[in-house]
Design goal:
Elements: H1 2-28, H2 34-52, H3 59-82, H4 88-106
Keywords: Cell membrane, Membrane, Transmembrane, Transmembrane helix
InterPro entries: EmrE-like, UPF0060
Main location: membrane
């Protein structure tokens, strides 16, 4: 059940952070209205709260693992929302980032790790 919680929280965090950044991008770069930037700020704030709900108590570890999710999620967002066409290198880089995130998430805690 903890694994499901971790995955759901990472997915929600990705949605909030990537969506929030995209909304600000739309306001600033695409001139689609500053109200989108305000929604983006709210979404980015929500991201911070969602990330804080992760069961691991180590901020650095949670954010480092989330980095891999962010890489893959950003590419997926670009494909679905913006029609972005990734290269093979985008996919490879995303896979490497997700493997790295997986290693961080399943690694034994510092208390259980051998010295």
């Amino acid at each position: 059940m903890v694994t499901v919680r971790i995955v759901v929280l990472f997915a929600l965090a990705a949605l909030a952070e990537i969506g929030g950044a995209w909304l600000i991008w739309q306001a600033v770069r695409e001139n689609r209205g500053w109200w989108l930037a305000l929604l983006g700020i709210v979404a980015l704030g929500a991201y911070g709260f969602v990330a804080a709900l992760q069961p691991d108590a180590n901020f650095g570890r949670v954010l480092a693992a989330y980095g891999g999710v962010f890489v893959a999620g950003s590419l997926a967002w670009g494909i679905v929302v913006d029609g972005f066409r990734p290269t093979v290198w985008d996919y490879v880089g995303s896979a490497v980032a997700l493997v790295g995130a997986g290693i961080i998430v399943v690694a034994p805690s510092a208390a259980a790790a051998p010295e």
